[in-house]
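For the sake of transparency, this paper describes our internal protein records without simplification. The record that follows is passed on verbatim for readers who wish to inspect the format:
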Amino acid sequence: MPYAPFDWIDAEARGRAAAGLVRTLRPRGAEPEPLDLASNDYLGLTRHPEVTAAAAGAAPLGGGGHRVPAGDRHHRPARRTRTRTRRLLRLRGRPRALLRIRGQPRRADRAVRARLLIVSDAGNHASIVDGCRLSRAETAVVPHADAEAVAKALGAHEGGPSPSPTRSSPWTATRPRSPRWPRSAAPRTPPCWSTTPTARRPRRRGRGALAAAGLAGNDGVVATLTLSKSLGSQGGAVLGPARVIDHLINTARTFIFDTGLAPASAGGALGALGVLRREPERAARAREVAAALYTRLTAAGLTAVRPDAAVVSVRAPSADAAVNWAADCRSAGMAVGCFRPPSVPDGVSRLRLTARADLTEEQITAAVDTIVATAPRQAGAPVS
């Protein structure tokens, strides 16, 4: 037989199909879905006219190459000019920030953590897990939301590598809420510090999980955040003390060898910040919509996880059932997310509903009616 170097891919594809884990890209037009509960647009800012105008006005389109040799489009020398980075810092209460093209924490964390002991929650996002692995730092994985385990892991390494408790602000797919760190896990005296990705959670006045935890001004905290969720744009940033940001600029391969964030993305995020400062009630509205979806779906007999952010997780009896359920919702004019292993570490497939702040009462009712009408018969049964 002739040499076929990719036959192993066909074998793996057959295995995924048998397990109901095939993922396909579905084209999406410029216009929004008739009812979109599948996006990450938690605050309803992606298509806000002020945000799109800010993105369009931030030309040129591209990032212009690597930021060190090509120059930085996101900072200006004028003293009184409020740059994009500075406006982001005002919201998050951090001294310095570094914008980046990647929205997930992985790439930023790699360089930050190289000399640390990492204490990582077992429910952390895959990007954080990859960051821990790629950093080559010693990593202690603790059970999800177990504050005592975090404190114990830190205590066991007194005098060893600088400990870095690491957690993700939301567990939007599988967990009811994000835990608070124990006091012993909060930054004490150097060199103990925390890294907290604040990607998705619209908290008090839209300021994120750090503000909600009272850590917004703590010099021992480094935060990584994405601009592609609540701010409806793309890319991300690392926020923390000046020495950490300077260290990243000089040592982070994922910054040095990466193209700068497109000005349009930074401009759109800046426009979203302006809307959020003027309309801080959007964060509370997103939680209200999530609570309404949860209450009505569970009242209809479905099994859902009580939300603490802008996402509602509705359990499906199997991976195939989740895929078919999502497809039936789409046929009925509504887009929903569909999470299956390995995206969900507990092995339970589910629909993922985005409770956008701009959903009307009529849209909430339509969403509940569609999900209930298309639900598999076993969807209301408890799932182990």
